[in-house]
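Predict fold of Holin; 80 aa.
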Amino acid sequence: MKNINWKQKLSSRKFWIALVGFITSILVAFNVPTLTVEQVTTIVMGGGTLIAYILSEGFIDAKRVEEGNKDGDTTKTTNS
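Predicted 3D structure, encoded as tokens:
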């Protein structure tokens, strides 16, 4: 069995959209009020955005360290 690359999955917009669709369907099936469904959807998408940001910044930082650029500039990924 292949290992799942959770870093890649958690930073995928498709994953978060699929998760929101699944959760929304479950909430509607159980007759949860519309306002609650909207709030849950907003929270899940906000969390997904935060996780994607954290993972992408971690990836950028790791690349910077690999390339020897330790000046703290996240826009600079190669040595000048």
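The chain has a mean pLDDT of 84.
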